[in-house]
């Protein structure tokens, strides 16, 4: 009888411990998303140093444009690393993705600014961001697949959530580092050299990830398709499209609430940088507590109830939550961020549905393409779109409509296109 037990889905004689499996899936995401978060949190400083302009809003938009560039290449990274994961193995794809993230992160920390090398500075930072984007295109989805394929069938959601947890922990670590730097250094020191510290420290996180994954001798399911890319766009394109639509709301909600929010509090609310970082750090710490509980519920109640709750809260609550965030009182701003944390926790707790929707033969390639297309086109561009909407409309609440629309798309997808996959065999 077929089973989803991890002992029967892999060609290894000795299955690694449950803790080791979770650590291997988690640690790479901490590294990957720490690096991405640090760039987002220091976007205003980077904009001034690498994209100078007489209009600070133009510099900020240009900096977020470079941030978005890293996301726009994620589908390509998904194709590359997804193919490696399907044909060569999950572990090799995960090892390579960490390396491809670590090198450009350190180089950004060492990169001369526009004042030193002129136009070469913004060009180089965009190129490095794109290399990071290629890496992230394979890391997150492959790690979640790895976690699910090494999980008992009744704990798939709980196992999968640690990939999300690692991503949030990485962003939290970036936020915490940003908070420490902002609280310790003056504005002049931060602009002169302080912003480089978090990028350079990213190398330590990368080394940890490499050591953990190198010691892990576990793969995933063997290759079942010799042409995973062709089959992804052929017989399985419907599943990939559903995954893409499902993740539009997830990506926009997350990047609006936990990446762009820091800039929003500083630039729009005109509050000190330390308050912005501290609020964001506290909200994400709560999210880390919410996620395992939401995943536990997804294993017992089903994936769809959690997704519906999360997307409905994001769609109908975006405007009131942004109204709370657009305030001079840090506590009210924090309540708005907590509301988004609850919405995303429900969505992230059911992230396993992405793996369950894609057939095993093209799982790495199909999930990477579907997920990264949605996140690249919608999630990663959210800070850029939000800054542009405020500048063009003059309405500080305009980003809420972007969040509401994206979450609405994913809510309708969940209601009418996504089956309940709780008891579905992998």
What does this structure look like?
- The protein has 426 residues and is mostly helical.
- The protein has a single domain, classed as MFS general substrate transporter like domains (Growth Hormone, Chain: A, Up-down Bundle), CATH 1.20.1250.
- Helix content is 79%, strand content 0%.
- It contains 20 helices and no strands.
- The chain has helices at 18-41, 43-50, 56-72, 74-87, 90-110, 114-117, 120-149, 156-184, 187-194, 196-214, 228-233, 237-258, 260-268, 273-301, 303-325, 330-349, 352-357, 363-379, 382-393, 399-416.
- α1 (18-41) runs antiparallel to α7 (120-149), α3 packs antiparallel against α19 and α13 (260-268) packs antiparallel against α14 (273-301).
- It starts with 17 loop residues before the first helix and ends in a 10-residue tail after the last helix.
- Residues 1-13 have low confidence and may be disordered.
* Rg, nearest Å: 20 Å
Q: Roughly how many Å apart are the termini?
A: 13 Å
Provide the CATH architecture. Up-down Bundle
CATH fold descriptor: Growth Hormone, Chain: A
Largest sheet: none
Order of helices and strands: HHHHHHHHHHHHHHHHHHHH
- Report the top-level CATH class: Mainly Alpha
Look at the structure and give the mean pLDDT: 83
The coarse silhouette is: globular
Fourth-level CATH superfamily = MFS general substrate transporter like domains
Query: How many domains?
Result: 1
What is the number of helices?
Answer: 20
Structural class by helix and strand composition: mainly alpha
Q: How many extended strands?
A: 0
Helical proportion, percent range? over 70%
Percent range for β-strand residues: under 5%
- Note poorly predicted spans: 1-13
Subunit organisation of the chains? single chain
